[in-house]
Design brief:
alpha+beta; 5-stranded antiparallel β-sheet
């Protein structure tokens, strides 16, 4: 039975699809190993009382920000287990920053991920931000179930054949 999305005899412009439209893991064995970096960011909004409780360390589950930061780092290392077609990569650095923003009120989460490999780390950076945000939500949901996770996006990537890319301001 043919998949209705198949495109016989036409190569796909999406690198994760083969000529017949089937998902496959891209073979990167012919690519040059280069230093690659990606930076992603996301935002959490919450009630002012919740924000103050987190800032004062007065939450039922303990160190909300430290736990979220660690979860983001761990998630970056597990990206290939979570995203089906991602390559497992030897990460050389993962940093997660959680910055308080009283005017939201809430937090901005930023992840910076580096490797020296044949493919980039954009998905690792985005995964780190996503899981840090979900962990922060989990740690604070007893105080505020209305916390929103917003605008998870790539800010920057460098390395590889396509070189440097920056999000528009």
């Amino acid at each position: 039975m043919k998949n209705s999305m198949s495109l016989p005899n036409k190569p796909s412009s999406l690198s994760h699809l083969d000529a017949s439209g089937q998902a496959n893991m891209v073979d990167v064995s012919d690519k040059v190993s280069t230093l690659r970096e990606a930076i992603a960011q996301g935002t959490l909004r919450m009630g002012l009382e919740t924000f103050h409780a987190i800032e004062q360390g007065n939450t039922p589950k303990g160190d909300v920000l430290g736990t979220a930061r660690l979860a983001g780092i761990m998630a970056a290392k597990q990206t290939s287990a979570l995203i089906p077609l991602c390559h497992p990569l030897p990460l050389t650095g993962v940093k997660v920053f959680i910055t308080p923003e009283p005017n939201l009120p809430g937090y901005v989460i930023e992840a910076r991920v580096r490797t020296k490999a044949e493919t980039g780390v954009e998905m690792e950076a985005l995964t780190a931000v996503s899981i840090a945000a979900l962990t922060l939500y989990d740690m604070a949901k007893a105080l505020d179930k209305g916390i929103t996770i917003e605008s998870i996006h790539l800010l920057h990537k460098s390395g590889g054949k396509s070189g440097e890319w920056n999000a528009s301001a």
